[in-house]
Specification:
The chain is built from no helices and 10 strands. By secondary structure, the protein is an all-beta fold. The protein is globular.
Length: 97
């Protein structure tokens, strides 16, 4: 587990853990989500849209929900996700070695 100070609810940030770049989204007082930073379609960088509350791949209009599930577009599989625990103002992220 790696600890981070959280962003505000509705906020997002990108962090690096064990050499992996991970987008981190805090969508509630007690919930947050961490993802692999690359779309499984063609490895484009993903972005979080706070307006839509979805993860977007701008290369080919891929769209994912906050569980990593593909909602639309060409991605062949869900985003890889990582376990998160919100502990007060900290977010704990579990990334396998």
């Amino acid at each position: 587990m790696v600890r981070f100070r959280s962003q505000t609810v509705g906020g997002s940030m990108v962090t690096r853990i064990r050499g992996k770049e991970l987008p981190l989204v805090r969508d509630g007082q007690a919930s947050a989500h961490a993802f692999e930073a690359k779309c499984p379609h063609e490895q484009c960088d993903i972005n979080y849209s706070s307006e839509r509350q979805k993860i977007e791949c701008p290369c080919h209009d891929g769209l994912f929900d906050l569980t990593g599930k593909v909602l639309s577009g060409p991605p062949p599989r869900p985003l890889e996700t990582y376990q998160t625990i919100v502990d007060g103002e900290r977010i704990l992220v579990s990334v396998p070695e």
